[in-house]
């Protein structure tokens, strides 16, 4: 079989989200493919929807039910264990793709000899095929036969896993699987997959629709989600040690870890979690410092992290108490200014 598409599903029945995704999959122009949709113990009618598609398209659609909620990583692992395709693709069950998405990506791979192919995507908040905000998922200079510089670039800017297809030997024919029971599972394994690839190709067109809504992972902030991001960072480093590329790409991995594990976690936590817990913030900073003591001198960190964030990081590294106090006062002041401006604009 040419292609296996793996779809982890959890409580996506409302508002037609799941049907819109599945409709884009069952009408792909590529021939000889299978869809493996794995229901991760949903509490809504998601499994019934999947079963209906399996009845309508028995030659290509497989509906699988997990008796235990294993999060997206576990659902993907179930799909990977069943996949028989030469190429492997993943899609989030609230997103959708153009009818020729997989045909074009795989054709580019087979014409060039690439074992990993990607494209750009749209950000959209409505179910339509209109072009939304375009996000460039990769860079032209990353394409072709992969060398050390291109690998470094892919570690720094690898782009989204779901906006790519992979030859099965990169993702299936290895013992590693996604971590289960956490979110941000893609971040944990992405580097190992990219470093197994020998040739990467990139279609600079948006063929994937990334649906933005209030319950998506990126818009849900809890302490548990923050802890999941931290765990994904730890697994990312474990992968680098296990497959012996940590030292070769230490500078790039240090920066990637700092952003994933620490910087993004710190500021999303401070913005979205209430009440702020001193112990959590203290532990986060302490583990970052212990793992990479000199991360603030990393050249990518110096170039890419916003100056205000670097200032706040320096403060948190010195005193968690002062950092939390300053941060709360800063945002109270900014919210006050914003409210006053809105009132003034309304009066005008």
Shape from CA axes? globular
Level of helix content? 40-55%
- The end-to-end distance, rounded to whole angstroms, is 65 Å
Query: How many strand segments?
Result: 10
Radius of gyration: 21 Å
Order of helices and strands: EHEHEHEEHEEEHEHHEHHHHHH
Largest sheet: 10 strands, mixed
Number of helices: 13
Mean pLDDT across residues: 96
- Indicate the proportion of strand residues: 15-25%
Protein structure class: alpha/beta
Low-confidence stretches: none
What does this structure look like?
By secondary structure, this protein is an alpha/beta fold. The chain contains 13 helices and ten strands. Strands 1, 2, 3, 4, 5, 6, 7, 8, 9 and 10 form a ten-stranded mixed beta sheet that branches. Helix 5 (148-156) packs parallel to helix 9 (250-272) and helix 9 packs antiparallel against helix 10 (278-291). The mean pLDDT is 96.
Salient structural properties:
13 helices, alpha/beta, 348 residues, 10-stranded mixed beta sheet, 10 strands
Topology (SSEs and partners):
Layout: E1 3-9, H1 17-26, E2 33-39, H2 46-56, E3 61-65, H3 71-82, E4 87-90, E5 96-97, H4 101-112, E6 116-124, E7 133-135, E8 144-145, H5 148-156, E9 164-167, H6 168-171, H7 185-196, E10 199-211, H8 223-242, H9 250-272, H10 278-291, H11 299-304, H12 307-318, H13 320-347
Parallel strand pairs: 1-2, 1-4, 2-3, 6-10
Antiparallel strand pairs: 4-9, 5-10, 6-7, 6-9, 8-10
């Amino acid at each position: 079989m040419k292609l296996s598409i793996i779809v982890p599903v959890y409580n996506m029945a409302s508002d037609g989200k799941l049907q819109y995704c599945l409709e884009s999959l069952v009408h792909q122009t590529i021939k000889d493919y299978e869809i493996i949709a794995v229901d991760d113990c949903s509490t809504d009618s998601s499994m019934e929807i999947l079963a209906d598609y399996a009845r309508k398209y028995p030659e290509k659609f497989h509906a699988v039910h997990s008796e235990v909620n294993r999060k997206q990583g576990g659902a993907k692992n179930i799909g990977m264990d069943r996949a028989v395709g030469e190429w492997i693709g993943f899609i989030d069950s609230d997103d959708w793709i153009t009818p020729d998405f997989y045909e074009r990506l795989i054709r580019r791979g087979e014409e060039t000899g690439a074992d990993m192919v990607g494209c750009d995507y749209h950000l959209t908040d409505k179910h339509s095929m209109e072009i939304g905000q375009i996000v460039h998922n990769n860079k032209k200079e990353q394409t072709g036969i992969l060398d050390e510089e291109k690998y470094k670039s892919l570690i720094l800017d690898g782009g989204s896993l779901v906006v790519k297809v992979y030859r099965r030997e990169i993702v299936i024919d290895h013992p590693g699987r996604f971590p289960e029971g956490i979110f941000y599972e893609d971040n944990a394994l992405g580097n190992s997959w990219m470093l197994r690839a020998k040739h990467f190709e990139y279609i600079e067109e948006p063929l994937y629709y990334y649906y933005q809504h209030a319950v998506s992972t990126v818009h849900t902030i809890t302490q548990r989600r923050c802890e999941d991001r931290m765990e994904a960072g730890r697994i990312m480093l474990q992968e680098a040690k296990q497959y012996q590329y940590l030292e070769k790409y230490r500078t790039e991995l240090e920066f990637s870890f700092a952003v994933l594990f620490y910087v993004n976690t710190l500021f999303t936590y401070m913005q979205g979690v209430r009440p702020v817990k001193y112990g959590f913030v203290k532990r986060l900073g302490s583990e970052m410092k212990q793992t990479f003591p000199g991360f603030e001198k990393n050249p990518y960190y110096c170039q890419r992290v916003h100056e205000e964030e670097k200032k706040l990081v320096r403060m948190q590294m010195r005193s968690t108490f002062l950092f939390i106090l300053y941060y709360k006062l800063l945002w109270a002041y900014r919210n006050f200014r914003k409210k006053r401006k809105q009132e003034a604009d309304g009066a005008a």
